């Protein structure tokens, strides 16, 4: 049974002014690697939280430091072998031992202000699909005692915040207007979600073994699973040192690492702006399922017209037509549907030339607002977000939009020569 409630689309603002009936249990998962002084500062700050101590669990996960970190009584320490940069595996290990209703992820060098846990846990406690990004500020803490109140020490040694992130939060109204690329604005070092939703999405992908990318991949997958993305600007945590974007732009090693991260993500996140412009990655963005056709010619006209409108799509066809499309890599026999942002069901063969504009618009926008499904004549354009919420709550949470158009079913002789020649 899911506790809490859902909201239409990404409308976390409908929960403004509401508080949980009681403070939720919060499990704080802190990832560490050879950062004892930073860890000391963060653990000290966690002991000063306004969130009730008896509702707070702290788990430190060490990513293979040569010497285990020192942690005070009451803090659980887990360790994993040093096999590269394995923040993804470390977060999963911590989450697997968490008992709180809400999991709050922090890095050892990211120190929260006193109200951080209270503010970060509110939305996930009310709406279990909420994925919350805190405000990560930056400071140079060198020489600052670890027990200095961070809400004073941070402003005294403050560094610039990344302007691109501030601009994104401002233009999206703190992610209220999130879309399919808003995963870029949720950082794993200052993130929270319900344990129920984390388990529903699945953990971080442990194939990520270099710096960066594992949080964005998870947030994108969470978005497809129905996440409600929110930025909580008054939940402040201070990172010791500048933001990655504020470091030496001329460092070739840094630039190479950023390129490696971007290349890796093209295989995981297939939306426009993240995927290659022409090179296809492993993930599926739009999946079309053709249920049937009266002849190979009708199947061909239908699939060809669909791919002419949506060239980035993948199409599944009945087994009887698989050989017809053997040379087209975008077309496969029917089978289990892979995770895709959009699923288009075509119950019978049709030509979509006349609804190209409507079909493209539905595919580009469905799931990002409150409309989760668009029906264009007999064609159903369904977002992954709508499907996920439907499965979780047993009811429609997104709106369905109907576009009334005539799309006659193709007959066994669809006029193939005329279609290809352009006179039909």
Automatic annotation (TrEMBL):
<dbReference type="Pfam" id="PF00535">
    <property type="entry name" value="Glycos_transf_2"/>
</dbReference>
<dbReference type="InterPro" id="IPR001173">
    <property type="entry name" value="Glyco_trans_2-like"/>
</dbReference>
<keyword id="KW-0808">Transferase</keyword>
<feature type="domain" description="Glycosyltransferase 2-like">
    <location>
        <begin position="27"/>
        <end position="138"/>
    </location>
</feature>
<dbReference type="InterPro" id="IPR027791">
    <property type="entry name" value="Galactosyl_T_C"/>
</dbReference>
<protein>
    <submittedName>
        <fullName>Glycosyltransferase family 2 protein</fullName>
    </submittedName>
</protein>
<comment type="similarity">
    <text>Belongs to the glycosyltransferase 2 family.</text>
</comment>
<dbReference type="Pfam" id="PF02709">
    <property type="entry name" value="Glyco_transf_7C"/>
</dbReference>
<dbReference type="InterPro" id="IPR029044">
    <property type="entry name" value="Nucleotide-diphossugar_trans"/>
</dbReference>
<keyword id="KW-0328">Glycosyltransferase</keyword>
<feature type="domain" description="Galactosyltransferase C-terminal">
    <location>
        <begin position="182"/>
        <end position="229"/>
    </location>
</feature>
<comment type="pathway">
    <text>Cell wall biogenesis; cell wall polysaccharide biosynthesis.</text>
</comment>
